[in-house]
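Much of our argument rests on the idea that a fold can be written as discrete symbols. The amino acid sequence and the backbone structure tokens for this protein are reproduced below:

___
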Amino acid sequence: MDGRTSQEAVIRGYLRIPGLPDGDLELPYLQFQGRAAGPRLTLLSGVHGCEYSGMAALREFLGEIDTAALIGTITAVPVVNLPAYTSRTPFVVPADGKNLNRCFPGDPSGTYADVLAHHVFERFIRGADYVIDVHSGDLPEVIEPLVVYDESAVGEAARQIALAYGTEHVIRQPASARVTTGTTSAAAADAGVPAITAEAGGNGVVSAQAVATHLRGLRNVVATLGMLPYDVERPSRQIEHDRGWSWIYSPVGGWWQPLAELGKRVDEGEVLGRVSNLFGDVIHEVKALEAGTPMIITTSPAVAAEGLLMALTQEV
């Protein structure tokens, strides 16, 4: 025992973000101080307000942390995009319609999402030793369990925690071809902080399987970092996709019917799905431009022009 009470070892605090259009925002966070110095790990979830499996997994993980066994410090924000969470708004910040995970590291002079991203980045990401951002598919999509990290000066350190998370698919975003910019993990990498984005689950439901995937991943990483004494559970196989991934959008609006299966490899030229008009006529057929594996599939039939249909990893 180190002589501290459990209340002294765990801080429940609020990050106050002033000057927002609808008043100040108070963002809840927890900080767990270990019995000895060690890595500073930041855990985030709820960057998108309806990705509940990731939030549920982080809640469960935080509830089992034993500060008497902890080496280092864990700081966690259970719901980053609090306005989207409370309004049940998928993908974006309600006040300005921006995807918060395209706004990091933020801008204190920008709109609501930019300001929120700025304060979260400066308080919880900059200065951390490692960052894990826990996600799951939002309301109209499903995602194959995967981890993404960015090629950077700290890319190898990020790769190690990505592999430790234990999903079958690990995707590196090449620096020269970032499909998604402004994410927590990309902004962290640019600031010299090894970071990963972990995905499992979808359709805005709390899936027991997705929660278990994330819970295993969080335990694996803290054990790998020497922070908590969990047994690391290794997957039977892991595939590293080092060429990133490609995102497929619909050129027209209509009724989307996916034909490809999540996590099942497709060949170049294979039909991935069709978009029809509301009379039932097929107006666009989606074919794979190259071989790959569907990692994200939009499950909602309703799709607008330029709406996301699918994301495929490129071949290893």
